[in-house]
Design a protein that fits this description.
Chain B: One of its GO terms (molecular function) is protein folding chaperone. Chain B: This is PAT complex subunit Asterix. Chain B: It is found in: Membrane. The complex is a heterodimer of chains A (479) and B (104). Chain A has helices at 2-19, 28-33, 40-48, 78-82, 107-117, 137-178, 230-238, 266-275, 277-282, 306-312, 315-323, 376-391, 396-442, 446-478, and strands at residues 55-61, 67-73, 181-182, 198-201, 204-210, 215-223, 244-251, 260-265, 288-289, 299-303, 328-337, 356-364. Chain A has 479 residues and is an alpha+beta fold. In chain A, α6 crosses α12 (376-391). The longest helix of chain A has 47 residues, at 396-442. Chain B is mainly alpha-helical and 104 residues long. Chain B has a domain at 32-64. Chain B contains 4 helices and no strands. Chain B is rod-shaped. Classes of the chains: A alpha+beta (479), B mainly alpha (104). Chains A and B meet through α6, β4 and β6 of A and α3 of B.
């Protein structure tokens, strides 16, 4: 009987230890609820007290078959209470907790209390960590800029194309009545008129006309503003520039006399005088006013000699220049035209550049296609100038002066390049010698080799003798 | 007949074909903008792998080069420059998807 009683007690002790984790043990129903919930113990602890201290389970036995479990909140004297935890059998109080279980536990209550006291502050998430479209505003700006550039490209390209077409439609009749070939890109087998402009790029259009008296051909270049490039459009807001029509008429040698003449705006003439080879060599004086001939103050004249100016400035030409002065940038007639000055790295070029008898016209264009008809009289002026250039001839004095000028320019050029030409000739001679020596060395037949060497020696001796003769002659002349 | 010939300045027997002027003769007249922009675009594309704004500038350079190019120019070079700049932008964002920060 006593053994059975002891066994029951032990069983109950073990059962109550497992129940010690539960919260409220007043009812059996509560025990069932919290059976599986290990953390239920802590829920009620939060309501009752701030601390999360674990609770001590005290088992009391009143009767043989009944046991009640009381829960007590633990204080700081935990360790003292746990000393008796090992002695459980038959004891009214059981303390199953380890000393070390709650080490460092004092810190936790302090930190949790401080946390609850601090107010919650909402910090803004930095922009680079946000996931919204707004943070990509720079990228959106870039793409918008690109789209604006593309739109401007399409609009600018179309405008230039319309202006070119309008110009050509206005001038087609006049050109076709003066030239056999109007429009040629040089690729067709036969010389037939294409009847359209050649597009060099989005702002430059070319037209080649040929088959007329006096001239070999006429190249018209429509140089529009770079409306397709947004950067250029913005730059033009600072510095206004206008479209240009450049006409280059290549005259036949027999249809133009020898003179250099230019008329245009002062600014354009100063620039041309610096840039162009022929104007800088033959018209070294500053641009003169054309008021003497009835020209407006905006226009100036550069001329090789007075006779040319008098001959060129006839009534009709003056009429053209006066009425369309705002459209005229420059008019340049020259038999020594070779383009702009070429700057070479070695210094002067070794020979004079090729020249052509040329009439050059630069006109300012219109911004609107419907105003292209205003440029038609300028084309009439070009045609008139071609015929005039054929008719105009210098008198004897003028011709002599012109020839003297050309000879002077050539002599100056030769003097400047004398040293370079000498060096070039010397290097050519050395190269020839070296090539001959190599030929002799490479000759396999010894007989032939000997003969070649003898011939080379004889040639050298002859040269030396010639030189000596020349020196003697010079000495005799000097004496 | 003779009056017609006299008044008509056209001469079919004097037709000359168009010869495009060689660019070596007039280097000053040739616009160097497309070549410079092409080169700048390639340099900025290389730098774009390190800095995002460089990649965007490279795209702009290739667009400007295209807008200023001549008809006779090789389209392959234009396209390669354009593709290089686009790939620089894409690669810089793949490497670092964060938005671009202004340099100021």
């Amino acid at each position: 009987m006593k053994a059975f009683h002891t066994f029951c007690v032990v069983l109950l002790v073990f059962g109550s230890v497992s129940e010690a984790k539960f919260d409220d043990f007043e009812d059996e129903e509560d025990i069932v609820e919290y059976d599986d919930n290990d953390f239920a113990e802590f829920e009620d602890v939060m309501e009752d007290s701030v601390t999360e201290s674990p609770q001590r389970v005290i088992i009391t036995e009143d009767d043989e078959d009944e046991t009640t479990v009381e829960l007590e909140g633990q204080d700081e004297n935990q360790e003292g209470d746990f000393e008796d935890a090992d002695t459980q059998e038959g004891d009214t109080e059981s303390e199953p907790y380890d000393d070390e279980e709650f080490e460092g536990y004092e810190d936790k209550p302090d930190t949790s209390s401080s946390k609850n006291k601090d107010p919650i502050t909402i910090v803004d998430v930095p922009a680079h960590l946000q996931n919204s479209w707004e943070s990509y505003y720079l990228e959106i700006l870039m793409v918008t800029g690109l789209l604006a550039y593309i739109m401007n490209y399409i609009i600018g390209k179309n405008k230039n194309s319309r202006l070119a077409q309008a110009w050509f439609n206005t001038h087609r009749e006049l050109l076709e009545s003066n030239f056999t070939l109007v429009g040629d890109d040089g690729t067709n087998k036969e010389a037939t008129s294409t009847g359209k402009l050649n597009q060099e790029n989005e702002h430059i259009y070319n037209l080649w006309c040929s088959g007329r008296v006096c001239c070999e051909g006429m190249l018209i270049q429509l140089r529009f503003l770079k409306r397709q490039d947004l950067l250029n459009v913005l730059a033009r807001m600072m510095r206004p520039v206008s479209d240009q029509v450049q006409i280059k008429v290549t005259m036949n040698d027999e249809d133009m006399d020898t003179y250099v003449f230019a008329v245009g705006t002062r600014k354009a003439l100063v620039r041309l005088q610096k840039e162009m080879q022929d104007l800088s060599e033959f018209c070294s004086d500053k641009p003169k006013s054309g008021a003497k001939y009835g020209l407006p103050d905006s226009l100036a004249i550069l001329s090789e000699m007075g006779e040319v100016t008098d001959g060129m400035m006839d009534t009709k030409m003056v009429h053209f220049l006066t009425h369309y002065a705002d459209k005229i940038e420059s008019v340049h007639f020259s038999d020594q035209f070779s383009g702009p000055k070429i700057m070479q790295e070695e210094g002067q070029p070794l020979k004079l550049p090729d020249t052509k008898r040329t009439l050059l016209f630069t006109f300012n264009g219109n911004t609107y296609p419907k105003d292209m008809e205003a440029l038609l009289p300028l084309m009439n002026m070009v045609i008139y100038s071609i015929d005039k250039a054929k008719k105009f001839r210098l008198n004897r004095e003028g011709k002599q002066k012109a020839d003297k000028n050309r000879a002077r320019v050539e002599e100056n050029f030769l003097k400047l390049t004398h040293v370079q030409r000498q060096e070039a000739a010397q290097s050519r001679r050395e190269e020839k010698k070296r090539a001959e020596k190599e030929r002799i060395m490479n000759e396999e037949d010894p007989e032939k080799q000997r003969r070649l060497e003898e011939a080379a020696l004889r040639r050298e001796q002859k040269k030396l003798e010639k030189k000596q003769m020349k020196m003697k002659q010079i000495k005799v002349k000097a004496m | 007949m003779s009056t017609n010939n006299m008044s008509d300045p056209r001469r079919p027997n004097k037709v000359l074909r168009y010869k495009p002027p060689p660019s070596e003769c007039n280097p000053a007249l040739d616009d160097p903008t497309p070549d410079y922009m092409n080169l700048l675009g390639m340099i900025f594309s290389m730098c774009g792998l390190m800095l995002k704004w460089c990649a965007w500038v490279a795209v702009y350079c290739s667009f400007i080069s295209f807008a200023n190019s001549r008809s006779s120019e090789d389209t392959k070079q234009m396209m390669s420059s354009f593709m290089l700049s686009i790939s620089a932008v894409v690669m810089s964002y793949l490497q670092n998807p964060q938005p671009m920060t202004p340099p100021w």
